[in-house]
Specification:
Low-confidence stretches: none
Distance between the termini: 49 Å
Strand order of the largest sheet: 1-2-3
Largest sheet: 3 strands, antiparallel
Structural class: mainly beta
Shape: globular
Number of strands: 8
Mean pLDDT: 86
Radius of gyration: 14 Å
Oligomer: single chain
Amino acid sequence: MFIRDKVVKCPDETCNWIQFRTICGITLTMPEIENLVKKGKTSLIKGMKSKSGKKFDAYIVMKGNGETSFEFENILYKSK
């Protein structure tokens, strides 16, 4: 992996995989990048901001094709 300030890239020229280090206002740490690449999932990242400005917590998950998506905790809220 080539790790730069803003991106992480695959060193193989035929591989076009690239991952931006800053996602929803949070910069991924080295351990989070390692977990994403090796295990396919980061630890729970807290305090990310949506486009509307709302904060949320989620895991970043790598799909089989190298794309990433969010996975949210299953939190059950009790109604009053």
